[in-house]
Amino acid sequence: MEIKASTAATRVVAPRTSTGFEYTFPAIRGIQAGREYYVSMCPLRLIPKIFIFDEDELSPELRAQRILNKGRLPTLTKYILDNPGDYVFSALTASVDGDVEFDHLGSDGNAFRTGQLRIPMDSRFLINDGQHRRAAIEHALKENPDIGNETIAVVFFHDEGLARSQQMFADLNRHAVRPARSIGVLYDHRDSEAQVARALASQCKVFKGYVEMEKSTLSARSRMMFTLSALYYGTQSLLQGLEIEADTSAKLAQDYWEHIDTTLPEWEMVRKRELSAPEMRRDFIHSHGIALHALGRIGNSLFRKSTAPSKWKRKLSPLKTVDWTRSNPDWEGRAIVGGRVSKSHQNVALTVNYLRNHLRLGLSAEEQRVENAYLRGEA
Asked: Which residues cross the membrane (predicted)?
């Protein structure tokens, strides 16, 4: 008797021993640190069934993984469902607590490294890396079962106990470095707002030649005025919730930032080489991410009333009289904390409030609550 689980990747066959059925995975065998490991392809529909997650009923010292962050799952699941033709997931890493046998195809060369990995079905599969991908796959399958026959790479190690599994988790994550947000924006071709930010950086006279495209922080001597990530978040806040076409949003964003440029003479001074970018960043806050984000939110509130330039440009005229210097005591506790520019959500909100009051735009009930807390010294 033979029950096929996948015509291409995985099948369940009749047992060879009395212990029960077993999984047979086409696999490639490798060696790391003197230990054998195996790489195979597993159909997505089998992932939730055979790969368990060490849930948080146990205390941290008795687990081999961190607690599953369920807040990440909707985004990961949506990524799969929204991009069925080009989503990409890296391999899962799992430890197998059970007898593992590898039947190689031959005795030399590639044939010795390829074959079938046989694992009893009563074995325990513990994910060392990829528990959020596994959970997202499970959720996505419920909404789109058709992806069940697609596959994901799995790296199998033999389970050598809790200490070894914990060490594997630590080693797999020890050197993981999240890429800078700027380069993520630079390479993201799905996000329409990332496309607008890239277009602004390359075409808008305000930003062209003065945007750091890879790093999300600027060194003290950098000749750049902005980071791509700061421009992205500022433009995202500007366009958020506006129901307009992509081409229109790009044009609107360019018009907005070019008008903002007319109210901030230091930006043009840098472009004319009358002021260096390091000097501007040292003495002013208007090229920092918090300022772009706040200005974007101001523009968004104006656009929600009217996108007619004659109306929103007139409202922005008082920006010319804002004192953007770091020495302005009004920024302390709003945009500057302990002498450093802060990009926290609270500081962005307080900076927006300051600009809205200066422009006489009024505050919403929530904005007034935040402002009152700041004035009482509670923020």
From this structure: none
